[in-house]
Amino acid sequence: CIITLDWIRPLYRYTFVDYFLKYFLFLCNLTFTILGLVVLGLGMWGLISKESFAQEQIGSIGTDPMLILVSLGFVLTLLCLSGCVGALRENCSLLKLFSAAVLMLITAQVLAAILAYSLQDQVGGYLRSGMLSAMVRYQDDLDLRFIVDEIQSNLQCCGAENYLDWEVNIYYNCSSPGVLACGVPATCCVDPLENGTVWNSQCGVGAQQLDEFTAQSVIFLGGCLGGISRWIEQHEGLIGTVAVVVLGVQILTVFISTRLLEKCKNMECTFFSFFVAIRGQLHWFQKTSQIICKLMRKKSLRLTWFITSVSRFLTSLRP
């Protein structure tokens, strides 16, 4: 009996679009996996270089900005790695995990945008509290110092609401006995470079004691919260474009993952049908074999009976 399976046809065939989507998703996730590893490495390097895991500093690690990089890098690496391997190996479980995670991320981003728009006043209060907290730890945390300096120098601002906010820092408070008393950081200065070449770190000393008319020629009077608001208003179009592009890329990855999942399910159905067909043909072959064996057994019994009868007849003819 020859079992032929030529009539079995696959329920799904690979197309050029399928190959393109598969490797496009793979390359995108591979790129972001590498980016996530870089971010994770930078965060770990920052924590280790500052000895944040030391016993005396482990209590304040929760407020360390480098922890944000570590968390972001870890989540990005884990998420994109699952999508990368799932797309390459066409693993349905990993693709489902990746799609669900991206959908949750999209939902969280949309909800965050809605909440930020509806609670603008409270968001401003949170930003002010965060800025003041960073100013308090300005001398103690190099990362916060770098962030505050970048904000003040790029936005040309000083303090949260105005330059007098630097009183919250114990080194710049007027009651401080140090040389920085009643001063502000050099990044608040209008011209922190002497002769355009040398950085003058003492240009903001005593600036809090000056009246606004005199101080405006030395330091920036406006706070950084207003500078951030103006920057957002000036770049609304760019921010909106970037947000739409990022959201669109995430939706595209979900679409591609769904397409690959559909292909995986169709392939599973194909293999299932294939094995069912084999099992069916084997079952038919088994039944046929049993029938043939029964017929042969019957013929064998008849032949044995015939031979026995002839033998008995010949024996009876002997004298």
Automatic annotation (TrEMBL):
GO terms for molecular function: enzyme binding. Belongs to the tetraspanin (TM4SF) family. The keyword Flavoprotein does not apply. It holds the Pfam family Tetraspanin. Keywords: Cell membrane, Disulfide bond, Glycoprotein, Membrane, Transmembrane, Transmembrane helix. This is Tetraspanin-10. It is found in: Cell membrane. It comes from Sparus aurata (Gilthead sea bream). Interacts with ADAM10. Its main location: membrane. Part of TspanC8 subgroup, composed of 6 members that interact with the transmembrane metalloprotease ADAM10. This interaction is required for ADAM10 exit from the endoplasmic reticulum and for enzymatic maturation and trafficking to the cell surface as well as substrate specificity. Different TspanC8/ADAM10 complexes have distinct substrates. GO terms for cellular component: plasma membrane. The gene is TSPAN10. The chain crosses the membrane at residues 20-45, 66-88, 94-119, 238-257. It is a multi-pass membrane protein.
